[in-house]
Request: fold
Amino acid sequence: MPYVITGSCIDVMDRSCVEECPVDCIYEGDRMLYIQPDECVECARCEPVCPQISIYHHDDLPDESKDYERINSEFFTDLGSPGGARKVGRVGTDHPDVA
Ligand code: SF4
Ligand code: SF4
Reply:
């Protein structure tokens, strides 16, 4: 499990991270963005550009944000691994814990 977006992205969603991702694996829900864990190549380019400090490697998640590893992963239960966020567009729904 690679990089994870946490709760401080909620209702911010400025998409700075999306511009940096070389594999386009950051998908847009309704209130926050989510990283597809099977598509992330752990390049770390998204982490420093986030103005909210929302993005962590899963090994470095603060205790209060550890649930977001599960939340990012479960967001893709139905969506699967589409192979690129741009072709999917805005998903427009959230994980139930975020909605
Ligand atoms: S670590 Fe790299 S591949 Fe993974 S979400 Fe961030 S920019 Fe994309
Ligand atoms: S850069 Fe940070 S706050 Fe902005 S959309 Fe990405 S994760 Fe959310």
